[in-house]
Amino acid sequence: MKAFEKIFDKIDVTKHDYKKLIFIPLGLVLIAIIILGTMGVNLGVDLRGGTLATVNGISYSPDIENYLITNLGDSTIKVRSIYSPIDEGFIVETGPDVDSSKLIGLINARYPDAAVSVQNVGPSLGASFLKQGTQAILLAFLFMAIVVFLAFRIPIPSVAVVFSAFSDMLIALAFMSIAGIELSRYTIAAILMLIGYSVDTDILLTTRVLKEKGDTVNQKVRNAMKTGLMMTFTTLAALSSLYLFSTSEVIDDIAIVLIFGLIADLMMTWIFNAGVLKWYALRRAGGELDE
User: Which Gene3D superfamilies match (predicted)?
Assistant: First the structure.
C-alpha cells in the first residue's frame, strides 16, 4: 500500500495546472482522429466477407502464407497460428473472391493429414454483421448518455463523461489501426466492455466531486483517483496476464484492445474529466480556491 501511495503522489494531477493538463488528452484524441481518418479501420473477415479455414493437427509454419498467396493470387490472405495444450494448427483468412474448394485443395496437398474446416462469409452477410455491430455501439452510447444525464442532470459534467467514453473508443480504434488488429465481432465486444468500464470510473469521479460534501474539490478528486487507479491497475494486471498466457489469438486481441483502451481512460478520466469537473465546481462556487 505504501508503494501505491508513492506512485500516487507522483501522478497526483491536483498538484498541477489543470487548465494546461487538459490539452494532453485532447491532443491524444486529435491524433487518434487523424490516424483513423488516414489509415481507417481494418475489418475482419466476419465483417468484410471472405473465407476462414481452420487447420488442426499441423504445426504452423510462416511460409504457408506465401505458399497460399502465390497459388491463389490473393495478396490479402493472412495466416495466424492457433495453439492449445491438446492441439495446434493455424487459421487462414482470405478475401471473398477466393475459391474455397481450391483453398482446401492446396492445404490438403501440402498437409494431407490435416483436419480442415471452412467457414464462408459473404460480403452481404459481413456488411450485415458490421451494421449490427455499429448499431450496438451507437445504442450503448445512447443508453449510457441517457443514464448519465438522468443521474446528474447537469449538462457540462454529463457531456464530459460521455465525451471521455467516446474518446476512449476512438483511441482504442486508432491503436487497432496502427497495430494491425482487425475490427471483428470479438473486438467490437471489447469496445463495448471498454465503454462500460470508462463510464464506471467517470461516474465515480463525477459523483465524488459533485455530490460529496465537506472536502475541497482537490481532496475529492484525490480520493476518487485513489479508488479509481486501484480499480484500473488491478484490471490491467488481470488483462496483462490474460494476454501473456492466453493461447487464443481472439482472446489476445480482446485483451490488448482493453489494455490500451484503459490506459487511454486513465488520461481521459483523471486529466480531462477531472479538469472539467474542477473548473465547473470552482465556477459554481464563485471561483473560490480550494487548494
Answer: Multidrug efflux transporter AcrB transmembrane domain
Give dist(CA 81, CA 88) in Å, integer: 8
Residue 291, pLDDT > 60, answer no
| Co-location of 180 and 117 in the same domain | no
Give pLDDT tens digits for 248-263: 778 888 899 999 999 9
Q: How does strand 87-94 pair with strand 115-121?
A: unpaired
Residue after which a domain boundary falls, among 60, 87, 121? 121
Give the count of domains, the chain.
Answer: 2
Under a CB-based contact definition with an 8 Å cutoff, are residues 262 and 197 in contact?
A: yes
Q: How far apart are CA 255 and CA 190, in angstroms?
A: 8
**Do residues 81 and 22 share a domain?**
no
- CATH number for the domain that contains residue 135: 1.20.1640.10
110, 113, 133, 148, 266 from 274: Cα distances, Å: 59, 60, 31, 16, 11
Out of 37-46, 53-62, 249-258, 281-290, which region has the weakest mean confidence (pLDDT)?
281-290
- Report d(CA 13, CA 8) in Å as an integer: 9
Residue 99 has φ and ψ, to the nearest 5°, of -75, 115
Residue 291 lies in a domain: no
Compute φ and ψ for 162, nearest 5 degrees: -65, -40
